[in-house]
Task: inverse folding
């Protein structure tokens, strides 16, 4: 399975999750897990997504998500899962 | 499955602590380019490098995008040019024309450095190798991206003192040829003992003759990550200190291994090694000297520095070795002066001298690196400094190197600015007493007794 980790950091506002999920749904990217916290009005979210059926290349998706983030004033980062896996698992 | 804490830890290393992949270096053999006609040789060299490396930069950028980790440099190392150009080059200008070709192809494929304008003369010099060495000042003053290295000694062969004497003169001449740019040419020239064939780091990278046709070597970095990890264990004993460094080195090296494998796959070139080094940059928070301070020293250079560096170097290796299937290159802690803000501060404060740096090179991964000295230093004195450093490498069976810059027109107390990753440096004092009669003896120093292991 090709998986990626999406992280969203920024000032909490209405519709952050909605905006990200709408983008993912439009490109056939399935969400496997979401965890989210708000610390001192700062929104922190991590998503694990499955890219198996994604209809666009990884780089384009990462650029697209970054643009979604800019639109709502948060920073969205998308990275392949392997970097975390390699670093934290033997 | 990966959790939030782990994701945040990795991303903080990247965003706040300067974790990066310092270089993806594509090694290319030029042995099949050898030709007795100089023009044809230059054409073949250009064509082979261009074909092999045309997608290197693009691929590096794509990998950086996928994993969200900066890959700072994309570089090329080639077969030592003395071997490739021997049949065609009859004078120094002929050899320098190869350097110009290398510079051109480096610019065309978009890499910032190409290493391998080199000669391996640890026991003796062929006429071609001597010619290449004599062409270094011209080559480095007429090119921008070419890096040069000369291996003048090894544990197995001893030290070629004729080459050491010649290199003292060539370093000084390179400084003179590039004096308009504060003798910048010398920042691209390294003298080695026990030079590794698979080093991905500049200026000393070359593609050894023991290597395959092409290979991907990756150099990782992350002094800031180690420093931050050590902040959490202030005052703890050495066991805790060592465990912390080891664990951090493991994590950093795993990223290098991942990037190396991905680059190897995408470029369809075999994976060589990960060089698990702590390579500082002039950026604040990206300093090896700061790690030494975090370990408990007021400044790098204070008593205890050699012991602290020995611990750091060893633990980086122990942590890194398990993280990668193949490690090699220089692997350990680099201690350049101009490329490390903490080192610069230590020199400026009077805490760090050339002699202390020499002691530190007994336990670090390389040697005297990016050290600016007065431009009126005699060639024989530079040869003496080289001989000392080569002797440390030869006897301790480790790689040592000297990258020293006699800055023409400047003296102790002045500062020299190289720019970019090369940083800036205060000019350090050199012992004024002569070693002329010693380095002029000629011949070679025999290999040490413990090298006879057969």
Result:
């Amino acid at each position: 399975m090709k998986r990626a980790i999406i992280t969203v950091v920024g000032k909490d506002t209405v519709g952050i999750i909605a905006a990200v999920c709408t983008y993912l749904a439009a490109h056939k990217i399935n969400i496997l897990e979401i965890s989210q916290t708000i610390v001192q009005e700062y929104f922190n979210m991590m998503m694990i997504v499955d890219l198996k059926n994604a209809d666009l290349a990884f780089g384009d998706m990462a650029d697209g998500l970054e643009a979604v983030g800019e639109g709502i004033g948060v920073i969205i980062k998308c990275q392949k899962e392997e970097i975390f896996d390699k670093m934290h698992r033997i | 499955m990966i959790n939030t804490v782990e994701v945040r830890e990795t991303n903080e290393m990247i965003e706040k602590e300067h974790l990066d992949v310092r270089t993806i270096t594509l090694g290319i053999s030029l042995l099949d380019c050898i030709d007795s006609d100089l023009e044809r040789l230059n054409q073949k060299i250009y064509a082979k490098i261009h074909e092999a490396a045309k997608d290197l930069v693009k691929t590096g950028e794509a990998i950086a995008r996928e994993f969200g980790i900066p890959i700072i440099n994309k570089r090329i190392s080639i077969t030592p040019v003395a071997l490739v150009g021997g049949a065609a080059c009859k004078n120094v200008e002929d050899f320098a024309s190869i350097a110009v070709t290398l510079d051109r192809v480096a610019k065309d494929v978009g890499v910032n450095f190409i290493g391998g304008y080199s000669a391996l003369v640890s026991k003796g010099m062929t006429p071609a190798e001597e010619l290449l060495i004599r062409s270094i000042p011209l080559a480095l003053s007429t090119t921008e991206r070419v890096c040069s290295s000369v291996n003048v000694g090894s544990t197995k062969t001893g030290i070629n003192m004729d080459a050491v004497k010649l290199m003292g003169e060539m370093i000084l001449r390179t400084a003179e040829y590039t004096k308009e740019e504060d003798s910048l040419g010398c920042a691209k020239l390294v003298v080695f003992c026990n030079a590794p064939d698979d080093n991905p780091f500049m200026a000393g990278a070359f593609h050894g003759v023991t290597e395959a046709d092409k290979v991907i070597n990756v150099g990782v970095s992350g002094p800031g990550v180690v420093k931050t990890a050590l902040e959490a264990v202030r005052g703890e004993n050495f066991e805790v200190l060592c465990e912390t460094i080891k664990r951090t080195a493991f994590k950093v090296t795993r990223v290098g291994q991942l990037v190396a494998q991905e680059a190897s796959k995408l470029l369809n070139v075999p994976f060589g090694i990960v060089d698990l080094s702590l390579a500082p940059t002039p950026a604040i928070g990206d300093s090896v000297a700061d790690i030494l301070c975090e370990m408990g020293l007021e400044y790098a250079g204070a008593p205890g520095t050699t012991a602290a560096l020995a611990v750091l170097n060893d633990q980086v290796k122990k942590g890194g070795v398990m993280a990668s299937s193949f490690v090699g290159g220089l692997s350990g802690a680099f201690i350049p002066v101009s490329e490390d803000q903490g080192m610069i501060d230590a020199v400026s404060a009077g805490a760090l001298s050339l002699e202390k740096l020499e002691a530190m090179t007994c336990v670090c991964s390389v040697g005297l690196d990016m050290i600016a000295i007065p431009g009126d230093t005699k060639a024989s004195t530079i040869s003496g400094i080289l001989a000392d450093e080569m002797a440390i490498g030869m006897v301790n069976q480790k790689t040592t190197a000297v990258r020293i810059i006699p800055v023409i027109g400047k003296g102790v107390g002045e500062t020299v600015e190289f720019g970019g990753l090369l940083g800036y440096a205060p000019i350090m004092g050199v012992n004024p007493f002569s070693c002329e009669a010693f380095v002029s003896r000629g011949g070679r120093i025999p290999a040490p007794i413990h090298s006879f292991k057969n």
